[in-house]
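Subject: design request, 356 residues
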């Protein structure tokens, strides 16, 4: 999906995130704004590969065990939600949904960097990794060697969507963990913040995802935050014009410029994707795009392109339609490049380390 970014894991940047979010809300709500690729990945057939009841006999309490961690993490650190969902997206788009993004480079046994340390993954928040680590520890204590890290990540992402107010949907399980994690495979498989709709469609199509999937999955930007570096060019030098993006709402432009200078700004500063309800999983993202309040160029483009605009308009009007479509799209994305069996996968005891 288009870049789902969040701030670094320091407590100070978390405070900055909240402060800027409140500031943007004040700026906008006091005005007329209404507040409320290459490297083609193999696509598998989810119904043949995965099952809701995959662990019914081997670990029947798996979802409750993971839920005990995600609910606690969400209360203690709400940013764990968007952090984990972003982790899932970045995992599935590179080598498929196989938890390869969680592998630590220092455990690779060679000088090759793992996916986690690729430039495009450098600002993944630690809370996402921590959620999976804690959930894995609890699951291993009850069902040792049974549940994959890939399935734990998929279930955790669903939990956080629901905890933040979004839909609850069944997660099909049966993924094995991947044996390969290479930073060099990331750049060509992860959407960039300034992608055009054509570029987005090309990448999503290479994963077996449709135009509608693109717009629906982008709705995950209904909560979470992005670093200034991902949108600063829109504020000062849009596509080399030496001018701001003419589409962006002037009030949002002024607010963002106050926190994100053209040069020399604080690298930890972030802004909310959804300036109206930044901590809630709802459909406000699409209404924001219609009001020219999209944060990233790749997001705002969805409301401008004639191919995607009607979908944005439909989802802006109907939250339940968005929820149903999002659940279906997450299941579809969650089946990309699924690994099965010891020939292609492993069941890691420590999600950050390959099995010996």
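Subject: RE: design request

Done. Sequence follows.
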């Amino acid at each position: 999906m288009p870049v789902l970014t969040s701030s670094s894991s320091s407590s100070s940047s978390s405070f900055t995130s909240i402060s800027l979010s409140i500031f943007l809300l004040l700026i906008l709500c006091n005005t007329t704004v209404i507040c409320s690729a290459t490297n083609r990945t193999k696509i598998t057939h989810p119904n043949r590969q995965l099952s809701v009841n995959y662990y019914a006999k081997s670990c029947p309490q798996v979802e409750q065990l993971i839920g005990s961690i995600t609910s606690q993490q969400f209360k203690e650190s709400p940013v764990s939600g968007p952090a984990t969902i972003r982790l899932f997206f970045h995992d599935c788009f590179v080598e498929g949904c196989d938890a390869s993004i969680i592998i630590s480079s220092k455990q690779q046994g060679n000088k090759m960097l793992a996916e986690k340390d690729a430039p495009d993954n450098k600002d993944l928040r630690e809370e996402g990794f921590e959620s999976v680590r804690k959930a894995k520890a609890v699951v291993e204590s009850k069902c040792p060697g049974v549940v994959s890290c890939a399935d734990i990540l998929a279930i955790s992402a669903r939990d956080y969507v629901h905890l933040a107010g979004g839909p609850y949907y069944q997660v099909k399980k049966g993924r094995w963990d991947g044996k390969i994690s290479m930073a060099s495979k990331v750049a060509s498989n992860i959407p960039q913040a300034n992608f055009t709709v054509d570029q987005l469609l090309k990448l999503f199509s290479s994963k077996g995802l449709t135009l509608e999937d693109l717009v629906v999955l982008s709705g995950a930007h209904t909560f979470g935050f992005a670093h200034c570096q991902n949108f600063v060019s829109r504020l000062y030098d849009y596509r080399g014009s030496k001018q701001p993006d003419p589409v962006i709402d002037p009030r949002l432009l002024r607010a963002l410029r106050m926190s994100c200078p053209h040069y020399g700004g604080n690298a930890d500063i972030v802004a909310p994707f959804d300036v109206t309800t930044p901590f809630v999983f709802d459909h406000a993202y699409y209404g924001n795009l219609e009001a020219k309040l999209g944060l990233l160029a790749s997001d705002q483009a969805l409301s401008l392109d004639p191919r995607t605009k009607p979908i944005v308009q439909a989802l802006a009007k109907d939250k339940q339609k968005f929820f149903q479509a999002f659940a279906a799209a997450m299941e579809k994305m969650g089946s990309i490049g699924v690994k099965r069996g010891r020939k292609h996968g492993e069941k890691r005891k420590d999600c950050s380390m390959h099995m010996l």
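The domain at 61-224+273-334 is CATH 1.10.520.10 (Peroxidase; domain 1).
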